Amino acid sequence: MIPFKYNVRNLRVRWKTTLMTVLGTALLVASSCILFGLVEGLEHSLKVSGDPLDLIVLRKGATAETTGGFESKKADELMTLGGILRDADGPVAAKELLNIAVAERNSGTYNNLIIRGVEPASRKLRPDFKIVAGRDFEPGKGECIVPPSAARMYKGARIGGQLAFGEKEKYLVVGLFTAGGSQAESEVWADLKDVERNTGREGSVSCAQLRASGPAEFDQLRKEIEDGAQFLLDAHPESRYFESQADTSTFFKAAGTLIAILLTFGAMFAAANTMFSAVKSRTREIGTMRALGFSRGDVLMSFLGESVLLSLLGGGLGLLATIPMSLISIETMNTSTFASVNINFRFGPLVMGVALIMTLVMGVFGGMLPALRAVRMEVVSALREL
Amino acid sequence: MSGSPSIELRGVEKEYRRDEFVVPVLQGLDLTVGEGEYLALMGPSGSGKTTLLNLVAGLDVATRGEVIVHGQDLGGLTEAQITRWRADNVGFIFQTYNLIPVLTAAENVELPLLLTSLSRKRRRENVATALRVVGLEGREHHYPRQLSGGQEQRVAIARAIVTDPFLLVADEPTGDLDRNTADEILELLEQLNREFEKTIVMVTHDPLAARRAGRVLHMDKGRLVDDVINEPPVTAAP
Amino acid sequence: MKYLTYVFRNARRNPVRTGLTVASIAISMFLMMILTSFFAAMQEANSATKQYNRIIVMNANGFAGQMPIARVRQVAAMDGVRAATPFSWYGGKYQNKRVLFAQFAVDADTVFDTLDEYKVPDDQLAAFKADKAGAVIGPKLAREYDLKIGDEMPLQGDIYPVDLKLNIRGIYESPRNTDQRMVLFHHSYLDDQLRQLGSASSGSSPTRPATGAGNAGIIFVKCDDATSTAALCKAIDDEYRSTDFPTRTQTEEAFGQMFSEMMGGLKDTVFWIGCAVVVSLLFVAGNAMAMAMRERTTEVAVLKAIGFNKGLVLTLVLAEAVLVAGLGGALGTLGSKALFDVVDISPFTGGFLPFFYVPWSVALIGLGVSLFVGFASGVVPAALAANSSVINGLRKVV
Questions:
Q1: What is the pLDDT of residue A384?
Q2: For chain A, how big is the Rg over CA atoms in Å?
Q3: What angle, 0 to 180 degrees and rounded to 10, lies between the N-to-C axes of helices C15-48 and C360-386?
């Protein structure tokens, strides 16, 4: 085996080329990582929103909370069902009413925000609900709480500000909340009764959320709700519900994958270019090594190794560059609800996987042909090269 | 050898700076070369012969002293001016031919003509003439890699004469050639000197090449140590 | 120009290197075209609607808000209005799966007068108007699901608690940059179904009132000419400002613009990725050029010896860099334009993108960017070559 330090030294000696290649490929890897970080953020928020024991109840046939409403009376009856988990405050279940309304961003453009009218138990039904600034709202006072991203982006959404949606709907922002990175962090929360009143929709709810006290009760509850004559509703397991909302995520994943593939090819060509040049300029050295007794296989592995090392440098740098991105979130439109969705960049397995795959493809496939060329040279002609 | 001096060096000194060291390469050189002379420069490695060649060809500038060619003091020219001067007055022949590998023989020869304002038709005519003079008709469209060493050097010579410069400068023109081919090339150079009255300054290690020249300068450690006029050039035995 | 031979030949000197550089640039440009066209094609399609002089009336509180159906007639009666139709989003499922093609409840008598660039043969239009359960669908939809005139198209309710049994009575034709996968059916049919269902069993959602009936969704209005549009927008909004359902009326172009603005952060992300790719190309192309020039030091010295001055040497190297980058750029930009002009990818996006193509403006900008990359990547190697020492370059390398 040709000692690896031969390759390391060569990369150091040709440092300008090494640097340019590393920077070029790092940027491509970083771009892919960022895209997948956003995809991962979106998927994470969808996954984390669904507790395995939670049910989200919608009108029969409806597929989304935003359009799947039913009568409030039925929702009240739901709350009395036996299988629901109970704690000191009562059943861990809540009726909720959604409104989607136009809001103005600080930049002057508009988007639709989801305003969720909630009950006290709603907080327990979200993972890790926390007030991170200000305080929670008090019912009946026309107050609301918002996620930190909304406070940053929308006019009037800071604590003490007033969020106004049309003439009749106004809420005073009294606090900021987070909810474990779940979908709730793209919503504005207000008291159920306030939202009912403001939208003139007393008597109906968008959905009811329930937590079963155990797996057996979970199944039983589902049966009761779906088959019970007085209900005629659908009880979706929350995790499956959020999976089905993943339209946007699927599109982004597909787009992200396509982009990453293109970028990988680009990076592969860049790495190959550098390696071809390396082989060309070291023809005489290669001839010498072969004359000394190193086999073709040794030469092949040596150059492949150098290519992989070069790619690792680029891939590693690209990956590192995305770490500070964890602070980034982008706010855009959820294509299933046409409402605002906040995507937090998440540095997780998807991101690292992308970086690793790109690096390996770059290094191995990019370096294969140059390495083969190095190997195919006849010793004598190689030694004759200037 | 005609009367008027075409190249004059007066008190020429050349130094190179390496970090804080000053390396003297030429020391107090005086030299006169007449119009149409065929001059060989010989000497051990480091004697300064290539540097002298570079000064005469306008590739380098003397640290002190004057280099006057055809009445023109090369030291007083700007870089752009001296580049222009070279294009008009000097033809180069190198040991390793230095042809552009991606151009054909004809295109290589045409290169210096691109710097003139001649029309494409005129350029082609001049290229054909140059190739004829060096005996390479029929090889116009060959690439350097398809030519033998001797043929490549002929192309290089054709390139050197195509703009009809008065001065030809050669740095070990036969260094990479076998004896027979070397003789052919030297024959060609003599012909250029004799029939076309080119002034030739040639650096060489080859004593047989030096004997073909009209005058041989020996150099050592940056100084001229010998200046020998040859008997009428010795040609190969009949 | 006489130097072009030399420049071209040099580019061909190392075909592998040139090929890889061209390929890198082509792929990156191809990607840029896709990313940029996503927004630019939407933009172009938006601007194209200006010529139709249409305005859209929606609920001021959100485009998912309500619009009483009676308003369609009221607006149609206004001065300067040629025709108006409701456009109510049904959002149903097809074959019991959520689908991404749009289904709208419209006024069959006025819809094709309002959307006059959508054309339906007279006989099909008549059949559509005559059949209350009739529908007109888009050509891409017909192709994708193999639907013909006379076929049934049952839709299962998702937003609305009623199913629809539609009969396909016509297939429309429309310009390339419009949605060719829509289903248009009678608003009265939907309303009847909803009223039959009665008010007792359905709850409400942000999108419709208790029964769900009587909602026009949004109103598409065709104005007489360009001058009346602005005034009409104001007139309509003033008229309904203090009612239960205040309106927001804007030109069709502004309405489309609203959607693309909602995308918000996404556009910025795409922009920054584009920038990163361009910078990456600078490194890649610059490196390739630098490597090439390093192998040519003697040759450059010879050229300078012969009499090629600095400026000429600089130009020759730059020209080579620009040529190579330009070739890659042309492949990527023009190639992608040709690809998407010929291949229709909308079926593969599951209806997410009703159309996708690369506008000329984007392709040309991409070409310009690649030429810039060529220039910027060649500048340093060119300057180095131009300023290189002739003597050092000629020194024999042993």
A1: 66
A2: 29
A3: 150
The number of beta carbons lying within 10 Å of the beta carbon of residue A312 is 16
Which among C20, C31, C279 is the nearest to A259, CB-wise? C31
- pLDDT tens profile C257-266: 887 888 778 8
| Closest chain C residue by Cα to residue A334 | C263
Structural domain boundaries in chain C: 2-46+264-395, 54-224
Smallest CA–CA distance, residue B231 to chain C, in Å, is 32
Please indicate whether, in this complex, the C-beta atoms of C30 and A100 are within 8 angstroms of each other. Answer: no
Structure tokens at C363: 């392709």
Question: pLDDT, tens digit, for every residue of C21-38?
Answer: 999 999 999 999 988 888
Please list, in sequence order, all residues whose beta carbon lies within 8 angstroms of the beta carbon of residue A99, skipping any fewer than 6 positions away: A114, A115, A117, A165, A169, A195, A198, A199, C62, C206
Q: How far is CA C161 from CA A337, B58, B231, C212, in A?
A: 18, 94, 118, 9
Inspect the interface and report whether the beta carbons of A17 and C287 lie closer than 8 Å: yes
**Which band of pLDDT confidence, cut at 50, 70 and 90, is reported for residue C50?**
confident
Instruction: Please give the ipTM for the structure prediction.
Output: 0.81
Scan residues 207-246 of A and list those with Cβ closer than 8 Å to C: 232, 244
Chunked mean pLDDT (size 10), chain A, 386 residues: 83 90 92 87 82 88 80 87 86 90 86 91 89 91 92 90 82 92 90 87 87 89 84 85 75 83 90 89 82 83 91 92 84 79 86 89 90 81 66
CB contact under 8 A, C306 and B88: no
Q: Which of B14, B122, B3, B20 is nearest to B61 (CA)?
A: B14
Torsion of CA A125, A126, A127, A132, to 10 degrees: -130
The residues in A 61-80 lying below 8 A from C, measured between CB atoms, are 61-64, 66-72, 74
User: A interface mutation test: which of C89, C277, C284 has the most A CBs within 10 A?
Assistant: C284
